């Protein structure tokens, strides 16, 4: 019987069809042909587990490996040597959260054979939705997630009323459906319920972890830098495409949170955050001369006028 298997490798995603009576060696040969790699390791399942492709194991029939419908991640094993220890490298230069993924910011995690990395989101007012949506494998997620959040609010009027939202639910959801409206804690809490995932958000300035969603089995991790969200991911090599990232972990995996906080501490030292308590914003809507202090005043101006474009005013 033919079975289908999804393949994720540095060269992209593809689908394979193979007879489940065939030996594993036939699948390995097919993966070698599809990926263009000669030496590699394979992982499958969730959480990902290594698939034994040693010579003796390759005689096992594929049907005994329960691979039907699974996704196999292919990682090269003959890549460039690991970078030198951090102490021998120059200090990273400060940067602003305006780049697009993938970004090279990473910390080595040799115990798991790879790196924990910061995937930097576009600075387009949808960074929170993009950060979470990418973690669950959605392409161009902002539109879909905004609509899901808005529909959830309107279908839970007792839970999300004007007192919670700060304005009538219909007005709030109409704003949230607009692509230039920022998402925040309310949206993260709702997305946690919709996708049954804990969302752990690490504040770069304080290193505080805000957890959205209780009693979940798995979590994703995002980083909040004052007015911007990015995503935490694990990769076996920072040069691999983001499609092969690992972005979900069991909630019992405390070590990944510790490593994520280590990365956030590095970002803190680089001053990779905006202090929203005292920064000065200006409205960039043509003809509007509003200037205010902090995110709360900006949010108030947005609700009163519908203006959503703000820039930080540099005081010299």
Automatic annotation (TrEMBL):
Q: Which UniProt keywords apply?
A: Cytoplasm, Hydrolase, Metal-binding, Protease, Thiol protease, Ubl conjugation pathway, Zinc, Zinc-finger
Group of enzyme by EC: hydrolase
Catalytic activity from the UniProt record: Thiol-dependent hydrolysis of ester, thioester, amide, peptide and isopeptide bonds formed by the C-terminal Gly of ubiquitin (a 76-residue protein attached to proteins as an intracellular targeting signal)
**Which stretches of sequence are listed as region Disordered?**
76-96, 297-316
Enzyme Commission numbers on file: 3.4.19.12
Q: What are the OTU domain coordinates in residue numbering?
A: 116-235
Function statement: Hydrolase that can remove conjugated ubiquitin from proteins and may therefore play an important regulatory role at the level of protein turnover by preventing degradation.
What protein does this entry describe? Ubiquitin thioesterase OTU
Organism of origin: Remersonia thermophila
